[in-house]
Amino acid sequence: KTKQKGKNDLAVIFGIESYKNVPGVSFAKRDAVWMKTYFEKVLGISSNKIYYKTDSDVGQAEFSKVFSEDGWLDKRVKEGKTDLYIYYAGHGAPDIKKNKAYLIPYDGDPNYASQTGYEMNELYEQLGNLGARSTTVFLDACFSGANRESEILLAGARPVFMEVESSTAGNVTVFSAADGKEISSAWPEKKHGLFSYYLMKGMRGDADANNDNQITVGELGDYVKENVS
Q1: Are the C-beta atoms of residues 185 and 151 closer than 8 Å to each other?
Q2: CB 161 within 8 A of CB 155
Q3: pLDDT tens digits, 84-97
Q4: Which of 45, 82, 148, 208 is close enough to 186 for a disulfide, judged by CB 3.0 to 4.6 Å?
């Protein structure tokens, strides 16, 4: 537990472990439960300022409700004062024809990513428009069309490797479990996604490379990169 108090700070946590139409994402709900604890205790964000939903509560409408103009975040962000944190554990999927990446809600279908998913570029653009002092996105997902067990979700396809633009918006920092050529994975012994496990371990203090009791974006990034191959 830290003394950090983010009185103007906000967070959104979505963890989708069980999907309506496709195989799930092992431990994603557990990852989300623990991230909420870390956001509260490490970052000092009060629970009423954390928008937290898991599994069947993360339908497509939730993304629009939270991120779009006049949505949950837009109504609450204090311009230039709010540090914003977004955590997502669940499926991502590509639309090969459009060369775009999408987050897949509980009721979505990776085979119809552009029709049933939420486009990453749109998400980053909306986050950039909120006017927050800083925005940090933690993404435990990949956009290959495979899940954490490397099961293929796309009909008749091998994993698809595409480069995802990490951010097109100003002042948005993105930590991602996998780049375009990787599949995100689980760590069954720890009952977590590999990325989420080391993200939390880093936030807990293990990423503090110079022992100054402050963890920078650079330190956390280096720590995660080193441990999550």
Answers
A1: no
A2: no
A3: 999 999 999 988 78
A4: 148
Please state the length of the chain: 229
10-21 b/e (C-beta count within 10 Å ≥ 16 → b): bbbbbbbbebee
The one-letter amino acid code at 85 reads Y
Helices (runs of H) and strands (runs of E) counted in the chain:
7, 10
Taking Cα atoms as reference points, which of 228, 221, 46 lies closest to residue 137?
221
Strand partners, 202: none
Structure tokens at 157: 């396809």
- Partners of 101 in beta bridges: 94
Q: What is the pTM of this model?
A: 0.88
Half-sphere exposure of 157 (CA within 13 A, CB side): 16
Distance CA 46, CA 171 (A): 23
